Amino acid sequence: MSIADLRPLRDQAERRREQKAWNWYDWANSAFYTTVLGVLFAPYLITVAGKAAGCVDADETCSRTVSVLGLDLAAGSLPFYLTSFATLVSAFLLPVVGAFVDASDRKKWHMGVYAYLGAAFTCLLFFIEGERWQVGAVAIVLASIMGGCSLVSYYAILVDISTEAERDRVSSRGWARGYLGGGLLLVVNLVVFTFHDTFGLGEGMAVRLSLLSAGVWWAVFTIIPLARLRNRPSLGVAAGGGSVLERSFGQLWTTLKELRRYPMTLTFLVAYVFYNDGIQTVIYAASTFGTKQLGFSQGVMIATYVLIQFVAFLGALWFGRLAATHGAYRVILWGNVAWMVIVLGAMFLPARQAVPFLLAGVAIGIVLGGTQALSRSFFSLLIPRGREGQYFALYNAFERGTSWFGVLAFGIVFQLTGSYRPAIAALVVFFALGVALLLRLDPERGIREAGNAVVRPVV
């Protein structure tokens, strides 16, 4: 066998090594999106802000207000407004970050800087206590923004380390590893929270230590991809001269104009904005819905999230196999229909009955990892080469933990009705819009227009 014959094997082995390293960042950052945004932050902040607002015993549906920059916001809606604000900022900031990434030869270091800033702000959540909710409000906004910035580089690296035929598998395994890692940390936090008296901790301190653990976890495991991934030369075409930052703004403007040349890419991006907002809002609001509306304890909620994490681990791998047989596009469409059934059914869940709630958690876990993993890999096929950072920045502005419209709608419906049941059911609109737009999409045309190889099956 000649050296030329061995070259593809060496290239494949190198890609596999980097793909395994790349997957570790899903493991690292998932702690923030599960322990913090998924389970503990919203109910705990509502409790602390409720005390500051004068609610007796942190009333389950506290509608008294606290002042935020001169605005009177219901304590029960405060976490959702904060997440909406973080996403609004990200919508303007992340595309510029993406343009900067495309113009740089150091994608992994951009990912690392933003990851460690996000982890540091997450650790500041430890200082939420008593009636001091303000530090948490600032820290969660900044941590969410930094997390989104790190994912811009992370997603762009996927294109560098995998072929078109490998991306569904690589992305699915990344999401699966993320759910496994997030689930393991939740198990630890479940033990700490449930047996806090045994450890000599108050309930509030147990929550604060769990929030801190997510930041530490994020920081420690980010070391692995930073050590094993390698930077590659930029393929982006800089717009004009000047500094990298000046060229980044130029590239952003060029990308926004050129997006009209890729109507299928634009269609999928808009569809993703809607259905991912629905997914992220379910993830973010489920703990509040379970504790404040259905009357479950934080221990039950953490246990349910642990169940969801491990089911989602299997669901992501299963959806990856389904995509290999039926195509990612079709499986994403099926997943959206399943989400519509789930959120409508959630409105009728009985209070304080664990079995129906756990069954709903299993259903969420099955479709959760798969729809997100395949959305990431499918969108990578619709991006013209050299523009990954900018396109994934637009995509990522509405990614995990940074949804805008869904969380905002959830908070508004609660403030208008005083109940989280109609708020959760209202999310069906977002999945219905996602399905309607996906049905207008021609996936093969979109992949060809972007200049990428069409891998069978597409649909």
TrEMBL record:
Location of the protein in the cell: Endomembrane system
Predominant cellular place of this UniProt entry's protein: membrane
GO cellular component terms, semicolon-separated: endomembrane system
Database matches in InterPro entries: Atg22-like, ATG22/LtaA_families, MFS_trans_sf
Coiled coil: none
Transmembrane segments: 24-46, 78-101, 113-130, 136-157, 178-195, 207-227, 266-287, 299-319, 331-351, 357-379, 391-414, 420-439
Record's keyword annotation contains Transmembrane helix: yes
Domain of life: Bacteria
KW Transmembrane (keyword) present: yes
SUPFAM superfamilies per record: MFS general substrate transporter
Keywords of this entry: Membrane, Transmembrane, Transmembrane helix, Transport
Membrane topology according to the record: Multi-pass membrane protein
Name this protein carries in UniProt: MFS transporter
